[in-house]
Amino acid sequence: MLDDARILVTGGCGFIGSNFILHLLERYPDCRVVNLDKLTYASNHANLRDVEGDPRYRFVQGDICDGELVDGLMAEVDVVFNFAAETHVDRSLMEAGSFILTDVLGTHVLLDSARRHPNVKRFVQVSTDEVYGEMSPGARAKESDPLHPRSPYAASKAGGDAQCNAFFETYGLPVIITRAANNIGPRQHIEKMVPLFVTSAMRDEPLPLYGDGRQVRDWLYVEDHCRALELIAREGEPGEVYNIGADNQEENIRLAKALLQLLEKPLSLIRFVEDRKGHDRRYAVDSSKLRALGWAPQHDFLSALERTVQWYQENRWWWEPIYAGPFRDYYQRQYGDRLASGVPYDPEGGTPQ
Ligand code: TYD
Q1: Burial profile 297-331: b = 16 or more Cβ within 10 angstroms, e = fewer
Q2: To test the ligand 1 pocket, which listed residue (156, 210, 271, 339) has its Cβ within 8 A of the most ligand atoms?
Q3: CB count, 10 Å around CB of 198?
Q4: Do the Cβ atoms of 38 and 62 come closer than 8 Å?
Q5: pLDDT tens per residue, the chain (353 residues)?
Q6: Where are the domains of the chain?
Q7: CA–CA separation, 17 and 83 (whole Å)
Q8: 125: closest CA among 248, 21, 11?
Q9: Element at 126 (helix H, strand E)
Q10: How many Cα atoms are found within 13 Å in the side-chain-facing hemisphere of 298?
Q11: What is the distance in A from the centroid of ligand 1 to the CA of 90?
Q12: Nearest to residue 215, comparing CAs of 254, 241, 187, 246?
């Protein structure tokens, strides 16, 4: 399926997409990759500078909502991986229109083009565990569970997933949906919790922890995610959904403490700040269906975190300019008031309610 395939990767200049393209080019010497990316704020052309001269790799700047452009590319490929998405929950709380456009309409444009191109043998929709909504303690979402998206971001991804199902049922398009846990690793935009906290600590700036900091996420190292996607494209069944979770569940406060320890920075950098609206308390997925195909994560929580921290330490050139650009305005809007009224961590006093 991938060995000598022509592969369209959308959103390939983003965090997971760029890691996946590097993974493909390394693992499959005879594959060819076209990367369609709009180059929004969340992407970075430098993410793929190491393969720019590789004859197997081609970059096309453009929008997945552009049907004509998509049709031209779709005619030339065997496999599609759709990573292109607006992904940050906090931004979706400020403005959700771009999420609907890219995550719902953009997915539709890709699917509609793929169904008119029988050369396309697999369409992998890279989705998220957030479509299941919040999980009660001990529960883990199965692929057959109903979707309960609770943020505008999760709702837009659920809209994309629903269309994938529709195109499989209606047209027999060989679509597979994947729903992964929270990713960490190299080249993740600093708006997300882990890179924001790591780079803030390196700058001796406070770490804004929402609410009581007891929310739980499952932390998946991006390379483990890439290996899962590769396996699913090869061995997965069209029309099926595959969860991708590492069972590295941690509370946000414990994660914050662990990364401060790794960086040898004081816990007093933690600030409890006003919570995110509609903040999902816990995500967790059951990935036994994927594990039955032979996948297992190679990185536990600490190893994933250590590698991530090390990458941000070694690549200040990558993230420092982001703080000097338009991100400053977003940071101010998202965190200005929150940090002004934030409560510093007190090792004796526990967490605020
Ligand atoms: P995030 O990285 O935004 O991923 P998601 O919301 O998609 O899971 O957030 C991960 C967790 O960290 C989530 O519980 C929200 C929390 N968080 C903070 O406490 N402070 C922050 O500044 C951010 C961005 C997230």
Answers
A1: bebebeebbebbbebbeeeeebbeebeeeebeebb
A2: 210
A3: 27
A4: yes
A5: 899 999 999 999 999 999 999 999 999 999 999 999 999 999 998 999 999 999 999 999 999 999 999 999 999 999 999 999 999 999 999 999 999 999 999 999 999 999 999 999 999 999 999 999 999 999 999 999 999 999 999 999 999 999 999 999 999 999 999 999 999 999 999 999 999 999 999 999 999 999 999 999 999 999 999 999 999 999 999 999 999 999 999 999 999 999 999 999 999 999 999 999 999 999 999 999 999 999 999 999 999 999 999 999 999 999 999 999 999 999 999 999 999 999 999 877 666 65
A6: 6-185+220-244
A7: 6
A8: 11
A9: strand 122-128
A10: 9
A11: 8
A12: 254
Contact 236, 271 (CB under 8 A): no
Is pTM beyond 0.90? Reply is yes
Atom of ligand 1 nearest to the CA of 197: 22
Tokens of 306: 């250590």
Instruction: Give every CB contact of residue 342 below 8 A, 6+ residues apart in sequence.
Output: 206, 208, 271, 272, 273
- Which CATH number among 3.40.50.720, 3.40.120.10, 3.40.449.10, 3.30.470.20 corresponds to the domain 6-185+220-244? 3.40.50.720
In ligand 1, which atom is closest to the CA atom of 216? 14
Catalytic residue among 37, 90, 103, 129: 129
Nearest Cα residue to 71 out of 116, 122, 107, 32: 116
